Structure formats: structure tokens, C-alpha cells
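Q: Give me a backbone?
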Amino acid sequence: MDEVFGRKDMISPSRLKELSLKSDVSGFIQLGSHLGALAVTGAALWFSWGSWWMVPAFIAHGMLINFLYAGQHEMSHSTVFKTKGLNEFFGRLFGFVLIYPRDFDQIQHFAHHRYTQDWEGDGELGRERYSMLSYLLWVLGPTYWYTRIRRVIRFSLGIVSEHYIPADQHPRVIREARWHMAGYALIAVLSVATGSWIAVKLWLLPMLVMKPVHQLQNTIEHLGLPHIDQITENTRTTRTNAIMRWMCWNMQFHTAHHAFPGVPFHRLPDLHRTIFVEKGRKPHSMTYLGFQLAVIRAFWNGRTEADYPDDKIWIMDDTDLEPVGPRTAKQA
């Protein structure tokens, strides 16, 4: 990027206050449209099972299930609804569906925001540095689901080893995991007792198989950017279409979100325009496909994440090399 700037210079207090207003109406419009789409794809999948028509229904349904995490993420920030209890209720529901308990996710995610790209503190960097194999296993889903399921089981057994979870929060995540395990066990028992495959066909199978599409968003947000304490340098925005932005609850405006996480999802496009476009600035950005191709090239010939410097960008496209002019009087 041509210039580095701090959050204090990005937006006026009055404009930030305006953009930070929460709305139950906007929350229910987004939630209702997502759940409504799931109902449509679920019905299509159920009635087309066994025919070729199930393929597009399966793909769409699995994508929509996985992208419920965008809603869970925003509900952890309590920005989807003005009514606080709604954020918690639907956040817990989504966490159960996604095998990603809300309380744990919230603790981990807040550590991620506080220590973004810090190998020691970022709750989402508790991993070995990627090689080609480990990256592909994560993107395609095997290691993602292994870690998620194993963690819920481990917590339910009273074993919490994550350094970013304070000791006084251990009982909370243990209790939550046990409730999850009880719920999953109940569904399994009822499914066996009734001979029903509905949980497998309409939930588990499409969710597990279609995880790679959601991983496109998970991986693009920070990988290949500097491990420094500068939001406009360590976070990436995604260039994509309106359908993907809707399905991901506008999380493609990720730099804007990290800069001001209290701004609701439905105002993130406005926040992006305010702090970047109107000031003649731009965040690091790539397309989903462009990013994945760049990662493959970066890990080609046996190279790993450890072969690249922590303080420099090493996954980029031509837009990161374009000059950004200073703010003009018209832009001001």
C-alpha cells in the first residue's frame, strides 16, 4: 500500500456513531433471507435426492449452512440485532449447527481481534505454519473438521489447553461443550430409533462436503499479510459479487470490520466507502480465485509459510502494487 494510516485518521466520531447504530429490522431481514434460502435448498435437496437435480441443491444447501458462521461471527460481536438476547440466542443456535460452540468461538475470536496476526496472541493462529499439504488439508476440510470435533469432545471431558482462554472461563466452555455433546447424542439416538437420515442428508453431509467454499473466505482474510500491529496492513478485503457478499453477511469488507468491529454488518459497505473510497485510500484486496492461485504458487516446490518474512506481504495481486494518490479537496 502507498500509505499507512491509523484508525483515528479514518473516520469522524459522528460518522462512526451513525454507522454503529444497530437494528433488529435489518438483522431479521438478513437472518430471514438466509434461513429462507436454506429452507428452499433443503426442500429441493430432500425431494431431488437420488437424481442429478440433487447436485446443485446439495452444493447450494451446503454453502448456505457453512456461511451461517458469518452470522454467528457477527452475533458474537452483538451487532446483528439491537436486542442483545437475540444475538445470543441465534448465535448459540448457529454454533450448535456448525459444531462451533458460541462461547468458545467468542473468546477465540476476541483474542484474534485484540492480537491480529500475532503468532503468540491471535486465537486463530494456534497452528503450525502452512506447507502445501497442510494448507490443502485445511482448505478442503479434513483438518478443519478434525480440530473442531476433537475440541468439542476434549472440552466436554474437561480438558482446556488453549492459552487464550482465561482460567475463569474454563468452566464456561466445558459446560457449553457438554450441552453440545448431549444435543448431538440426542439427535443420533432419535435418528437411529426412527430410522431417519434427515440429519445426515440435510445437515451433516452437505455441511462437511461443502466446507471448502467457506474456507475461501476464512483463508483470504489474513494469510500472506504482515504479522504487524496495523489493521490496514494485516487484514485483507475481498473483491467479489453481491450474492457472495449477501451469503457472507458483508464480511468481505474485512479490513473495515477489523478497524471498527462495532459497526453492524449491514453498514460495512458504507464504512468501507467512508474510510477508504472517499479518502482515496484502499485496503489490501484480492479475489477468491486470485488468492488461492497465489497461495498455490507461494507453496510450490516445497516452500512453506516459514520461508516468507513475517513483516512483509507475500501474497498479493497487481492491485497491491497500484499507487494510491493522496486525498484531494474533492474527496475531502
In short: The longest strand covers residues 236-238. Residues 323-332 have pLDDT under 50 and may be disordered.
